[in-house]
Write a structure and sequence with these properties.
The chain has three helices and no strands. It is mainly alpha-helical. The longest helix has 24 residues.
Length: 79
């Protein structure tokens, strides 16, 4: 347990930095108002439906079992 005491300072600094970031981000959110033009533009853009050509069907992932299968020369044709 004595060996891990050197971790106390970095952990305390990290915790304080996380608390400060959460406090700073929260205080900035309060100042942002829905009547702000940038906020309204962003809200409209997020709610707008995507164009049909952007939506793609999800492809099934190929199974990877770690085995390499090489084709024989007869399947490629004579070279």
């Amino acid at each position: 347990m004595k060996i891990l005491w050197w971790l106390a300072v970095p952990l305390a600094v990290t915790a304080l930095a996380m608390l400060w970031a959460a406090w700073y981000g929260r205080s900035r959110d309060r100042t942002r108002r829905p009547d702000d033009p940038a906020y309204a533009r962003f809200s409209e853009a997020v709610q707008r439906p995507l164009p049909a050509d952007v939506v793609h069907a999800r492809q099934t992932p190929q199974r990877n079992n770690g085995v390499v299968v090489r084709r024989s020369r007869s399947s490629h044709g004579a070279r």
